[in-house]
């Protein structure tokens, strides 16, 4: 990329889906820690239902995002990005998609096996993914927690890379997702 030349930005829909997903994940991580440690007090049941509802919404959003991503190429990275960093960026993005789909599916399946309902904001309950099996529920919810930790770590890496591009490299990589 020539000096002064700017990479194209993401579309408005891509930016809205990205930031809405990011905001919901930022709510879900501490909410998950609160309910996992039974720190919700009298609100524990309400917090569980909020966690399950938001998780279902994230799953829906990520499926829409993935469909959009597969039909709309993202703007290219600047030409001077080394091949290894390009590979890391691509791998990180696809790993985030995978974890953002796996995480709510594990929670949904684990809750189904518990067995407990998976409400969607009080409008309806999602159908169970598996039959009641408390031992299976324990395993699925363990992996749900581990996936949450992996997601938090990978999202932190993603944010750090965006900040590196903005403050160290001073390119438009972050701005493409902020302003298009």
Task: Walk me through this protein's architecture.
With about 180 residues, the chain is mainly alpha-helical. The chain has one domain: Fumarate Reductase Cytochrome B subunit. The chain has a two-stranded antiparallel ribbon with strand order 1-2.
Strands, helices and their partners?
Elements (H helix, E strand, L loop, with lengths): L11 H25 L7 H28 L11 H31 L4 E3 L3 E3 L7 H36 L3 H6 L2
Q: In the CATH hierarchy, what is the superfamily?
A: Transmembrane di-heme cytochromes, Chain C
Quaternary structure of the protein: single chain
Radius of gyration: 19 Å
**Number of distinct beta strands:** 2
CATH uppermost class: Mainly Alpha
Q: What is the number of helical segments per DSSP (H or I, 4+ residues)?
A: 5
Taken together, the total number of domains comes to: 1
CATH fold topology: Fumarate Reductase Cytochrome B subunit
Order of SSEs: HHHEEHH
Structural class assignment: mainly alpha
Indicate the low-confidence ranges by residue numbers.
1-6
Task: Quickly list its features.
180 residues; mainly alpha; Fumarate Reductase Cytochrome B subunit; two-stranded antiparallel ribbon; 2 strands; 70% helix; 3% strand; disordered N terminus
């Amino acid at each position: 990329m020539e000096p002064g030349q700017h990479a194209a930005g993401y579309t408005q829909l891509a930016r809205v889906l990205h930031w809405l997903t990011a905001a919901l994940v930022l709510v879900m991580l501490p909410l998950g820690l609160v309910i996992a440690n039974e720190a919700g007090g009298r609100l524990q049941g309400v917090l569980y239902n909020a966690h399950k509802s938001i998780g279902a919404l994230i799953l829906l959003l990520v499926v829409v995002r993935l469909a959009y991503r597969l039909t709309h190429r993202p703007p290219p990275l600047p030409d001077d990005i080394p091949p290894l960093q390009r590979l890391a960026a691509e791998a990180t993005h696809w790993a985030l998609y995978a974890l953002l789909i796996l995480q709510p599916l594990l929670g949904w399946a684990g809750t189904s096996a518990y067995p407990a309902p998976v409400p969607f904001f009080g409008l309806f309950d999602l159908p169970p993914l598996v039959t009641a099996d408390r031992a299976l529920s324990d395993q699925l919810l363990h992996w749900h927690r581990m996936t949450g930790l992996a997601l938090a770590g990978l999202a932190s890496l993603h944010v750090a890379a965006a900040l590196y591009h903005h403050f160290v490299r001073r390119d438009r990589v972050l701005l493409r997702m902020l302003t298009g």
